[in-house]
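Data deposition worksheet. Section B asks for the primary sequence of the deposited chain exactly as it was used as input, without tags or linkers unless they were present during the calculation. Section C holds the resulting structure in C-alpha cell form. Section D is free text for depositor observations; keep each observation to a single sentence. Incomplete worksheets are returned to the depositor.
Section A, Depositor: J.P.
Section B:
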Amino acid sequence: IDFDKIDDHAEAFGGADVHFSCLGTTRGKSGAEGFRRVDYDYVVGIARLAKQQGCKHFHLVSSQGANENSYFLYPQVKGQSEAAITKMSFDRLSIYRPAVLMVDRAESRTLERLARTILSYTIQRIAPEWLTTPIDVLGRAMCLNSFTKDRPNVEILDNHAIFRLAEQQSNSESDQSKTTNEL
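Section C:
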C-alpha cells in the first residue's frame, strides 16, 4: 500500500470487524515532518478507512506518555493520533501505551539498540513492566483483547495493563493444557 495515497486502497480495509494499527517511525529515522506523516497522517488515515469499511474494533499501538498537549513532538503526535481516532467513535477502541518496545529491528538504530541491550540485562530482568514491553507480550495482549467481552468502548491500556492481559492469556493456556492433560 502506498500510504501517501491511502484512499486508493480503501478496499484493502473491507471485510474485517477488527483492525490493528502498529505503524510508527521515529524522528531520527524520518525527520520531524516524516514522523508526523507516518504517526499521524498514515495512522489516522488507516483508522478512517477502517471505520468507513465497517470496522467495529480498532486497536492502536501508541506510546507511553502520549499527550496531545505535550511540548515534545513524539508524545504530542501520539496523543493527537489517539484523540483523532477516538473522535471516530468506533464501537470499540483499544489504545495500547507500551513502554520501550523490546524488538530486534532490521534497520540500525544504534542508540536504541544500546538502550535495549542495557535494559534487557538490568531493568527487564528485575522489573520488566517498568520500562520495557517485549513485542510478544504486546502481541498476546492485543490478540486476547480482541476476543475479550465486557470491556469499555474506549480503553487506554498502559504498560501494566498490557502485561496483565498477556498474563491472562498465559494463564488460560495453562488451564486449557491442564484440562487436556486430565482428560
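Section D:
The first helix runs from residue 27 to 52.
The longest strand covers residues 57-61.
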